[in-house]
Request: fold
Amino acid sequence: MSEPRAQRTPTGRPRPHRVVVLALDGLVPFELGIPQRIFGRAKDAEGNPLYEVVTCSVREPGLVETDADFAIQVRHGPETLATADTLLVPALYELGPVHDEGVLTDELAAAFARLRPGTRLVSICIGGYVLAAAGFLDGRPATTHWASAEHFQRLFPKVRVDPDVLFVDDGDVLTSAGVAAGIDLCLHIVRRDHGTAVANDVARRTVVPPHRDGGQAQYIHRPVPEPQLATTMKARAWALARLHEPLQLRDLAEQESMSVRTFTRRFREEAGVSPGQWLTQQRIERARHLLESSDLSMDQVARESGFGTAQSMRQHLQAALGVTPTAYRRTFHATNATNTGNGGGRP
Reply:
């Protein structure tokens, strides 16, 4: 898909990126509210909204049933899909032929026909069934709730399903696992579009963790240790205060008075990744913050974030973000904040 062109308001400021949320019968109210809560709180340095969130139905405006004991009044019909920069499909539990046969209903097919080329596509949890039935996930990596992953793969064999991750970013098509992973994905999109500072501000206002990496494991199908017996929070806090130092696994284990073997096992149970992977993620986040908010040289950023050398930092950021530190700073440095609003699917 190509990217939609940026448009501007009468004042000359780039217009907010429009996120259209598709409300279908059987939708989950919690997940319907995630886009407004996350995208609706994202603002630029002057306090202007960076996104406009609109909810629409595949029918004429009216009531849409939820999986709870209430319905919601949706004010926009399927024509709104033609205005979307990003289409987001939250979870729903009345999928009908989409779930049973992997095909769209006539209503859904007609609605999707209205989408413009270049529209970014996003699903939360089993909302991914809708994107898959429309053929948008063919040949692409994707995820869904762990409990539905096996059925999802059987129904859509052309999709490369990863059942173990929180979300998958495949450029203009993004999918997430269930419930809270939808928050992680929406924050990731804000971070990708407008940088870490904006995403962290949204997370702080929403009182959620600012970042969980998409490759982090879904927790539900893993045994969860008793917190009082297995917590590694003290070691993580200790490490975060010393990211600029060379840290060894045994140093972290000592903070919890555990053997390296026990600490590694319990850390993975809690965080879903190994201690080494977690440290790298945190150092990448520190580097991103410094690249956005400071004028430190690349060597200084590398030392402060614990990578040691600019070359090492470059390799890690290139692998994680697909861009060099120089390109990342050029896009997201604070002096460029007024240039981050765009109408396209990518920053």
Q: What stands out?
A: Strands lie at 17-22, 51-56, 62-65, 71-74, 86-89, 120-123, 141-142, 160-161, 167-169, 173-176. The two ends are 15 Å apart (CA to CA). The chain is about 40% helix and 10% strand.
